[in-house]
Design goal:
Elements lengths: L1 H14 L2 H24 L3 H5 L2 H25 L10 H7 L4 H20 L3 H10 L4 H25 L6 H33 L5 H13 L1 H10 L8 H26 L9 H9 L13 H9 L4 H20 L6 H20 L1 H11 L3 H4 L6 H30 L6 H13 L2 H5 L8 H27 L4 H33 L1
């Protein structure tokens, strides 16, 4: 009864949630934007070969997967702050048991999920009306999607124990899910490599077990359900496996609650206390934060330091293994593109860390205090860049691996990869201009002019590398990019910094 009373007291807030209402509207709008053009353009020979309902079911399934992930992170992330805000302590003081709070949170998650998921019902009826998809097929796909939400929401609820934001919850949800799928498919991938390159054949019993494990994964069942007839009873092993994963995750969350209530786990409330704790204890004299305060600020304060580097190493290792394992199946080019895009995006964010630090100083109105130090704008940039270099070494390592792997794909690929990687490594001063240059004629002209010069330099180096050899790219691009950086640091940055200071003061 206590659970029911607690749910009733929280019901008005759950009913009036704007984020779930926005999720319903955005999903329906996106679905109709995709479905209506497909229904209008479908016809002719395509209609005779591929039924419209089959095409629409694929579109709905992919969009539903994104919706499942978004809702799991959003609803599971509602528990963020329960510990630091003292809400859980108040509830436990009232006599609420930890397992009851788990039940309350699970019911809230599934209630919010159902309020959004039900808007898909008209779309499912719409699919059945067009044909090409059976009711049994839709039931199997819906059951698999619900099982995916069960597992993802359990991961999100457990991740919210120490997470400080929903962004951290989403990151901690995706990694375990990908790890589970990879572990189920890894034996079959390894078997394919052994048989393709070395001609090794495993015993039939072991091969059957490997195929069964791979087919038990959620992705395999979804693809099988969308590609052909699949009975609901065939998915029972998948349901059982992911239900066990979810139960273990919820049990882990329950253990966290018990440990927190008994004082065996201390939850850090704020970033300030976390930073203070990191500064305690013995430190080597050469690693003190005040020895290089700007680098420490960029590395620890604005980027969380060592945990980010460890996550990068883990993700890049998985990407490298995925590229190697995709070769026997002919997917090396898509995996290369995924790895290159990931490396490029993360590298841009890391190289732009000095610009991010300057933006934070201006936004938080702490720039006048920083200007009291005996440093120039070049000193600020170099200090923040040293902190960024502590973060970027995994990105550089992956870029080197991609440059070596590009030799096996296309002759033009290596100079492109090398040129883009070097260009972004030397783009720090150029990116630092973004918070300084105003939206005026002179500011826009400066930005466009420098961008044009930078693009021309990179384009010339790519052309030289394609016509001769990729080894000439760094030999030419590094001196040119260094000269470009020197001009910006010594002449362009100080000029716009003086104008920015004048506008602030």
């Amino acid at each position: 009864m206590r659970i029911v009373r607690l749910l009733r007291s929280m019901a008005p807030r759950e009913v009036g949630r704007i984020d779930l209402a926005l999720a319903r509207g955005i999903f329906l709008a996106a679905a109709f934007i995709v479905i209506l053009p497909t229904a209008v353009m479908h016809g002719g020979k395509l209609a005779a070969v591929v039924p419209l309902g089959w095409i629409l079911s694929w579109q709905l399934m992919v969009s539903s997967l994104f919706l499942v992930f978004a809702l799991a992170g959003r609803l599971g992330g509602d528990s963020v702050g329960d510990f630091s805000s003292g809400l859980l302590d108040l509830l436990l003081m009232s006599g609420l048991k930890p397992w009851r709070w788990v039940v309350v949170r699970v019911v809230q998650i599934w209630t919010g999920f159902a309020s959004v998921w039900i808007v898909r019902l008209p779309l499912l009826i719409f699919l059945l009306a067009f044909g090409g998809v059976r009711l049994n097929q839709l039931l199997v796909v819906e059951s698999l999607l619900l099982m995916a939400f069960l597992m993802l929401s359990s991961f999100a609820l457990n991740a919210s124990f120490k997470a400080k934001s929903r962004q951290q919850v989403w990151a901690r949800v995706m990694l375990p899910m990908l790890a589970c799928e990879f572990l189920l498919h890894a034996p079959r991938i390894a078997t394919g490599i052994l048989s393709s390159y070395y001609g090794l054949a495993l015993p039939s019993t072991l091969s059957n077990w490997i195929e069964t494990a791979a087919s038990t994964s959620l992705t395999s069942r979804l693809l099988a359900a969308m590609s052909g007839p699949l009975e609901l009873t065939e998915c029972v092993p998948t349901f059982a496996l992911y239900a066990v994963f979810s139960a273990c995750t919820l049990w882990r969350f329950h253990q966290h609650l018990i440990a927190a209530t008994q004082g065996r786990v201390r939850v850090r409330a704020t970033d300030q206390t976390r930073q203070a704790e990191q500064q305690q204890g013995p430190r080597r004299a050469s690693r003190r934060c005040w020895d290089d305060a700007l680098a420490w600020q960029a590395y620890c304060v604005h980027s969380y330091g060592s945990p980010v580097v460890k996550i990068k190493c883990a993700v890049y290792t998985l990407l490298t293994l995925a590229m190697l394992l995709s070769i026997p199946f002919g997917y090396q080019i898509p995996m290369f593109v995924v790895a290159a895009a990931t490396c490029l995006v993360v590298m841009v964010m890391t190289v732009g860390k000095p610009s991010d630090c300057l933006t934070r100083e201006i936004r938080d109105q702490t720039m006048p205090t920083l200007l009291l130090t005996p440093n120039s704008i070049t000193d600020y940039y170099l200090g923040w860049r040293r902190g960024a270099l502590w973060l970027i070494w995994p990105d550089i390592t992956l870029a080197v691996v991609l440059a070596l792997a590009a030799f096996s794909l296309d002759p033009i690929a290596p100079p492109i990869v090398v040129s883009i990687a070097i260009a972004f490594l030397f783009a720090g001063p150029f990116m630092m201009l973004s918070p300084l240059v105003p939206v005026t004629f002179s500011g826009i002209a400066t930005g466009l002019g420098l961008t044009f010069i930078f693009v021309v330099i990179v384009g010339i180096c790519i052309a030289i590398g394609a016509l001769t050899h990729p080894v000439f790219v760094p030999l030419i691009l590094v001196p040119l990019a260094s000269l470009f950086n020197y001009i910006i640091r010594q002449h362009v940055l100080p000029y716009w910094m003086e104008r920015k200071i004048a506008s602030i003061i």
